[in-house]
Design a protein that fits this description.
The protein has 285 residues and is mainly beta. 13% of the residues lie in helices and 33% in strands. The strands form three sheets. A six-stranded antiparallel beta sheet has the order 15-12-13-14-11-16. Strands 1-7-10-9-8 form a five-stranded antiparallel beta sheet, with helices on one face. The longest helix has 13 residues.
Length: 285
């Protein structure tokens, strides 16, 4: 596939075996009982204290459940997911035989029909799927292609502008799921049974105590690393989730205290104020 551009920032974990779904049901925020082969499902795994350890896009493939996440978290997340397997018949491995990449919709095979955002279709061992608010299609399969840094950067920028959250080593266990808007994107099933961190996440939802949310901003400065503080004057107002450079600065996803959202905000160590931008969905409560 000559138009395939590898996404080296991302990697895949494959969870297989007779108990794969049941095991993940007790570890992830989404409802595995409703995961069909026709959609890509946002979800996350958490610490017992309800802090997000990894954010995934989850696919039901022929050989098991694929979990797409940042490559920087691949090894640590495999160890985390294996921690509670015990006697469950579930195998958790890095899917190093599969390459993740992106293709334009115009280059899709004729038999691929992805009508809605968050759709998934597997044909001949190749997964084609879309993410909310993004035009390009992700592809997961046994490909080999040269790195295209420009296209990978454009994908990352589109992901930021779509308001799609991620965590990285710098922000591991820094946020509760609702702070990253995972609930607003359909990544939390509040009526399902218990999973690791469920008590904290459910309490924040049912008691209405989510006081920080993720918003999109533009900055004239360089893209800050995840975890960089956002300040209102000298006060800590929030933290950078993700950022990607633009021609005139960068776009930033940041978790911000709702009480300080309308303050004059700036990135710690940088001059210039942040300008809030619209996202495809509204994080305001």
């Amino acid at each position: 596939m000559s138009i395939f551009a590898p996404l080296t920032r991302l990697a895949t974990i494959m969870v297989s075996g007779a108990d794969a779904r049941a095991y993940l049901q007790g570890q992830l925020t989404a409802d595995l009982d409703t995961l069909g082969s026709n959609r890509a499902q946002l979800t996350c795994c958490n610490s017992p204290q309800g802090r997000v350890q990894a954010v995934f896009w989850m696919l039901a493939r022929t050989e098991g459940i694929a979990l797409v996440l940042p490559a920087a978290l691949l090894d640590s997340t495999v160890l985390r997911l294996r921690k509670y397997v015990l006697r469950a018949k579930a195998k958790i491995e890095p899917a190093k035989h599969l390459q993740l990449g992106v293709v334009p919709r115009s280059a899709l095979p004729a038999d691929v029909t992805l009508a809605e955002a968050g759709s998934h279709q597997e044909i001949g061992g190749v997964s084609y799927f879309t993410l909310p608010g993004m035009e390009d299609v992700l592809v997961l399969g046994a490909f080999s292609a040269a790195v295209d840094a420009a296209r990978e950067h454009q994908f990352h920028l589109s992901q930021v502008r779509a308001g799609l959250p991620q965590v990285y080593p710098e922000t591991h266990e820094a946020f509760v799921a609702q702070m990253l808007n995972i609930d607003l994107l359909g990544g939390i099933a509040f009526e399902k049974g218990c999973y690791t961190g469920q008590e904290i996440i459910a309490r924040a939802h049912f008691r209405g105590t989510v006081k920080r949310r993720m918003f999109l901003f533009h900055s004239a400065g360089a893209a800050p690393v995840p975890g960089t503080r956002v300040l209102a004057g000298e006060q800590h107002a929030g933290d950078v989730v993700d950022a990607a450079s633009t021609q005139d600065g960068c776009n930033i996803l940041a978790v911000i205290s709702l009480a300080q959202l309308n303050s004059e905000l700036h990135v710690d160590g940088q001059d210039g104020l942040l300008k809030q931008l619209p996202m495809p969905y509204s994080p305001s409560e």
